[in-house]
Here is the input.
Amino acid sequence: MKTENRLLYINGEWVESVGKEVFETNNPANGEIIAKVQRGKEEDIDAAVKAARNAFESNEWQSFPPIDRGRILYKIAEELRKNAEEIAMLETLDTGKPLTQGRKDVEAAALYFEYYAGMADKIFGETIPVQPGILDYTLREPIGVTAHIVPWNYPLQILSRSVSAAIATGNTVVAKPAEDTPLTALKLAELIDKSGLPKGVFNLVTGYGSEAGAALSNHRDVDHITFTGSVQTGSAVMMGAAKNVKPVTLELGGKSPNIVFEDCDQTEAVDWVVRSIVQNAGQTCSAGSRLLIQDSIKQEFLQKVVEKMKAISIGKGVDDPDLGPILNEKQYTRVLEFMEVAENEGAKFLTGGKRERRDGLENGFFFQPTVIDNLNPKSYVAQEEIFAPVVAAFSFETEEQAIELANGTDYGLVTGIWTKDSARAHRVANKIRAGQVFINNYGAGGGVQMPFGGYKKSGFGREKGLEALRNYTILKNVALKY
Ligand code: NAD
Here is the structure.
C-alpha cells in the first residue's frame, strides 16, 4: 500500500498539524508501514474544539432541521456501504483483524449511522402536571461540543457508534482515534466531508493519547467526553473531566464469563465460548475470557473447547483466517507477562500459551489460542483483562457458586448463560452484575439497538440503543404561568 501523509480534518478542511510532525502506522501482520499521519497536539485540539464550538453556536447548525441531520447520517451509512470493501481492507491492514471481521465492522458502522439517523427527529421532552395555571414542559437539548476518544480494537465501529448518536442529537464532534489505528477514522472523515454536514460539526485530530488525547479530555470547552479503552486511561480522562466538571461516558473493558450449566446444548455452547474469545484475537472489551463450567460436565466440555481452539486457523488478516495477530509489540509483551504470571500462579495450559511462529508469520505478533485451567479465581490472571485469545476455566457445583464466581471480579460488562432451564436462566440473569446478559447466545449479532455498558470498573453510561441519546442531550425544564 502506498505510504501517504494524511492530514487532520478541522472545520471542514484538511490541514497539517501545527507542529508539522507525523508518525507511522503499521500493519500488525508484518510490521510494514502503511501510512504516515499527523501528530496532533494541544494546539490542534484547541483549533478543533474552537471549530466545533463555532459550528455548534452557528445559526446554520442551530436551525438545521433535525430531519436533515438524519438525512445526512443516512447518506454516510450509504457511503460506508458503497466503499465497504475498501474500508474493510483498510481496517484489516491497520488492526490485523481477519477480513470477515473487517467487513462486519464496516456494516456495524453503517448500522449505527442508520439507526441514529432515524432518531434525529424523534427526540423530544414531556409535559409535566404541576398545578393549575402552570404549563410545565421539558426540552431535550444537545449538550454541545462532544469529544470521542477511541481505542484501537474496533476503530471504525466504536467511533461510528458515538459520533452518529452525537450528531443525530444536534451536537458537534471532536474525535481522536487511537494512534495505532487511525486510518478508517480518516476515511470516515472523507465520507463525512462529502455528506453535506456543515463545516466544523465533525472534526478529527490524530495523535498520541498522552498529547492529543490528554489535551482533549482536559479541554475546558468540551461539554461531554466519550471514552473507550483501559481502566487506567479512563480514570485519567475522568480526572481531566472532573476538573472542568464535564460528564463522561466510559466503556472500560471486562473479564466476562460464560456460565455453562450441565443441561445446556453443549455443541452450541462450545461454539460460542470459542468464538467469544477468538473474535478479534481476544482484543474485545466483551470477550468471553472466563469459562465457568458445572463440575459434572467440566472435563467433557473443556475437552471439546480445547479441540475447537486447536482447530482455529491463524494467519494474516488479509488471508481471512479465524485468528489474526495481536496489535503490536507492547500488547504482545503484556500478554507474555500474563502467561508468565499464570505459570507462577499454578496454571495448567491445556493448549496454546505461546507465540505462533510459522513461515510467513515471523514479523507479526501471532498468539496461539489458549486454554488455561487450575487457576485460583482470585488470582491476578483470573481477575485482569488480558486482551488476547486466552480463556481461563473454572468450575462450580451450584447455581449460587456460579453467580458468585461470575460476579467475582472488579468488572461487569457481559455475561453468557448456557442452560435449557429458562427459570434458572432468569434467576441467574437477575443476580448478575453486568451491563449485558446473554442467554444461550453471546452478543446477539452485535445489536446496535441494545444498550451496552458496564457495572463496576467496566465503566458507566450506556452506548448503543436509545439509551445512548441520553449521553448527548441535556434536559431543560420550562414552567410557564398562564
Ligand atoms: P488506552 O486506554 O491507553 O487507549 C485508548 C485511547 O485512549 C486511545 O485513543 C489513546 O490514544 C487514548 N489515550 C491514551 N492515554 C490518554 C490520556 N492520558 N488521555 C486521553 N486519552 C488517552 O489503551 P491501550 O494502552 O492502547 O491498551 C491497554 C489495555 O487497555 C489493553 O490491553 C486492554 O486491556 C485495554 N483496552 C480496552 C479496550 C476496550 O474496548 N474496552 C480497548 C483498548 C484497550
In short: The chain has a mean pLDDT of 97. Residues 99-119 form the longest helix (21 residues). The radius of gyration is 23 Å.
